[in-house]
Amino acid sequence: MMNRRTFGLLAATSVAAIVAGCSPSKFKTYNGPEVTSIVVNKAARKMYLLHNEQILREYEFELGFAPVGDKQIEGDGKTPEGTYIIDRRNPNSQFHLSLGISYPNAQDFAEARALGKKPGGDIFIHGQPNAFKARRKSLGDDWTWGCIAVTNREIEEIYAMVRNGTVITIRP
Hints:
The protein has helices at 4-22, 106-114, 152-161; strands at residues 37-41, 46-51, 54-59, 82-90, 98-101, 123-126, 148-149, 167-171. Strands 3-2-1-8-4-5-6-7 form an eight-stranded mixed beta sheet. 27% of the residues are buried. With 172 residues, the protein is α+β, with helices and mostly antiparallel strands.
């Protein structure tokens, strides 16, 4: 026989299971044409996911806190320019989800070394910060340390569409 306390506990557990089952997942699926490349136009603030020459999706984004110019050294707040590869995925990112960009390459290392500095790293396409959703409004434009930031809904879509090994070209 069930007493009120047991019934209440079972009811609460059932409701929690139903709510958890209904909560939307950040992991989406994609069954369309393959994304063969990504083009990022920094000045226009447009990122394009392409299948060969066809634009599949277009996004606006925010950049590093010093958005003009090519990334040269660690901490400069610039987003790199050049051709790279999407080389890793982080489902547990501090920024909802993230896709890693293969910066720095050999040329980036050489340029930083010539300045007597390190090139930096950890450049990603990512969503919004997990830790401070309420503070996000106070960040303004161009708040990353050199990454490309989109909305959480957009990074969920991008994360589903883009595979490791996809070429990304970042233009001034």
